[in-house]
Each structure stands twice: as C-alpha cells, then as structure tokens.
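Sanity check. The docking grid for adenosine-5'-tetraphosphate depends on where the pocket ends up, so I'm generating a full predicted complex first rather than guessing from homology. Inputs follow.
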Amino acid sequence: MKRILSGVQPTGNMHLGNYLGALKQWVQMQQDYECLFCIVDLHALTIPSSQPHLLRKHTLDVAALYIAAGLNPETNIIFPQSAIPGHSELMWILSCHTPLGWLNRMTQFKEKSKNNSSHADLGLYSYPVLMAADILLYQATDVPVGDDQKQHIEMARDLAGSFNRFYGKDLFKIPEPRIIGHATRVMSLKDGTKKMSKSDPAEGSRIGLIDSPDVIFEKFKKAKTDAFPFPEAFDSLQDRPEIRNLITIYAALADITPSKVCELFGGQNFAPFKAALAELTIEVLDPLRQKFLALQQNPDYLTKILKKGQEDALEIGEKTLKEVQEAVGLLQLL
Ligand code: AQP
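Predicted complex below; grid placement will be based on this.
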C-alpha cells in the first residue's frame, strides 16, 4: 500500500488555507493510503515563543482539529513530531549531505526571514532538511500539501536521490508531492498577493477553522475587493488577486469550478457573493468547529490517540533509521 506523510505546525489557529490545501485532501485520501499525520511541533520552534504552554495547547488543538475534520484516529497514525527522536537524528545525517546552494534557493526562508529578520536563524534555514527527514523516515510515497510546500518536497526528493546514489543503495523511497484541488494556495483576505497564514498579525487576513459564524460573516464582509463588478469569466483576473482568491475559495468549498462561480455571480456587486461565501464556509466549518469544541474537553482521549500514534510511528521509523545508521557507518550497539 502507498503511504502518506503530512503535517501541520501547531503555531496558532489553523485556517481555511490549511483546510483546503491540506486537511480536506487528507480526509479524501485516507481510504486509499496508509497515513501518518504528524503535528510538526519541532518545525513550530522556528517561531520561538516565550509561552511554551501555548505550543503544548496548540499541539493538542491540532490533533483535535485533525479528528474533527474527519481523520479517523483508529486507522490513521496521528502523533507529535517531537515524540519520535528519529526525525532529529535523520535530519542531522541528511544535513551532512545537503549543499548550502539548495537551501539558499528556498523561497520560504527568504520570505519568512525578510518579514522577521530577528528570526532568521539556523532552525528556519534548515527547516527543509527536517521536513525531508519527516518524509523519508517513514518511506512515504506521497505527500499531500499546499502549493507553498512544493519546493521543500522537491528538495526532499533530490536529497533522497543523492543519498541513495552516494551509498549505492535504495535507502529512501522518492516521495511524490500531491498538490490537489482548486485552492492549493489560499491568499490573505486583506492582500491577494500574500498567502493566508497563521502567523500573519492581521486576524482579519484569515478565516480560522474555529471562528464563530458571526466572525466568519464579518471577515468576509471586510475582505478586500475592488470597485468593479463581479467578473463574468475567471481567466481574466491576473490584476485582481483578491477577487481571484475569493472565487477560488468558493469553488473549492462548493466543489465546483471557478468558472461556474463566475457564471453564478457574474455582473452582480460583491455583497450577495460575500454573504453566500460566508454561508457556504459556515456550512462546511461549523460541524468541524462543534466536534472540535467537544474533543477539546477531552484532553485524555487526545493524549491516548497521540501515544498510540507515537508507538506506531516509532516502529515504522526505526527500520529506516537503523538502515541509514548502518549505511553511514555508525556503530550499532543494540
Ligand atoms: N494559504 C494556504 N493555502 C493552501 N495551503 C496552505 N497550507 C498552509 N497555508 C496554506 C498548507 O497547510 C499545511 C500545513 O501548513 P503549516 O501549518 O505546516 O505551515 P505553513 O505552510 O507555513 O502554514 P502557515 O499557516 O503559513 O503557518 P505559519 O504562519 O506558522 O508559518 C501544509 O500542507 C501547507 O502547504
């Protein structure tokens, strides 16, 4: 069976971009793959926080959101990244095979370090190597992600290939990126050229998965549009990124094409479209929110799921790690 590895950073409240770019795809794929869904808390440390209790809270919240969105905790392996030391160990070994030129090309580092130069540290710079370790440790064949992670997966593929060639052995499977759906890069509601992001200081830039219906209505009402009417066609929107984004979100939530959205609303002003978009979003997100709120009351249940996930992930990862340790020449004492 093919195997999926993917994850979310517990860096704050998950948003509609995380849902449409990742979670929704995972829920659809879980029947056909063996799945490991990680909560990537070590990656979250690239945004250092002086409130460590919040990272622990967000880690449990992400687990609850995975389950609330429809991931089956009985059949999928759900675990925090830091519970498996193999991620960090494999990262070190892979680091010793990563040319700096590859890391210098990574656009996420360039963007994040430009936005916050005081956090431009080694952790953020080497993030793609840890991500490669996350994937390769479990011999994942497929990695469903949003478009923003494509470059990192390409680097993981390059790294796996060059490592295999160096040691003359197929130590790692070469993973395939799976970037699926209409909304592979959901943009900020305030600026259609910027990705919707948990760490954007502007709360109104994103729809949180646990936002209340009133908040969702308000955020869409205030979402940036322009003075022109709703477009009749989707392919003429290069200069209207905010409009393009809202249409894409509607299409992804309704499972219709963006052109169909233009047929439905073309020529009108934006108020009825924004109201319909808010209603549709609430229809999709409110059941998720209700389930999340119930799960949040039961941290013992969530911890039990994560412990079981830890055991299962450990077993799969150990095999790869032992083979890699052996290949690179580390002494095996046990
Ligand atoms: N705006 C987005 N549109 C589509 N997909 C997205 N993803 C993230 N943002 C969008 C996908 O969600 C998964 C989990 O992402 P992440 O939380 O691990 O990290 P990120 O990509 O850095 O997301 P954020 O929200 O921007 O987090 P912060 O602000 O903490 O850095 C990934 O599959 C990602 O592609």
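Relevant for the grid: The beta strands are 3-8, 34-39, 77-80, 142-144, 176-178.
Also worth noting: The radius of gyration is 21 Å.
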